Amino acid sequence: MGTWGNGPFDNDTAADWCSDLDDADVAKRPAMVREALNRAAGEDGYLDADIACEAIAAAAIVAAQQPGGQPITSPYAPDFLLNGGQLDVPGDLAVLAARALDRIMSTDSEWRDLWQDATAGDVNPAFDAVCGPRRVLPA
């Protein structure tokens, strides 16, 4: 996985998923977001980093649609969401996004392990990038 930053869209896997979402029929986009979140939230074993990267991007999209959510500004996010674009997000996706992010931050997650190993000390910008969207999602 190529990674150039710590944001939710700043890696090859997330950028590719976002491109697919951008190219998808408008009616199929919510289902694609749901699928990415379900794969992470439903993983019982060691969570693969690629699954986590897609789910983090999906959760950031859902969080951006919530009250208090940060707008999406990354050039690697789906183009249709830049500059205040919207995605019709069913209400239950916010709960699913929260579950997916909690699963990604659990101890049985390759994404978490990779970022924990890559940073020293108490400051971890990648973890902060996950915690930001998580704050506007349901508990």
Account of the protein in words:
- With 139 residues, the chain is an all-alpha fold.
- It has one domain.
- It is built from six helices and no strands.
- The protein has helices at 12-23, 29-41, 49-64, 92-104, 110-118, 125-135.
Order of helices and strands: HHHHHH
Estimated helix fraction: 40-55%
Extended strand count:
0
Mean pLDDT: 92
Which parts are unreliable, with pLDDT below 50 for 5 consecutive residues or more?
none
In short:
The protein has six helices and no strands. It is mainly α.
Features:
mainly alpha
What is the topology?
Layout: H1 12-23, H2 29-41, H3 49-64, H4 92-104, H5 110-118, H6 125-135
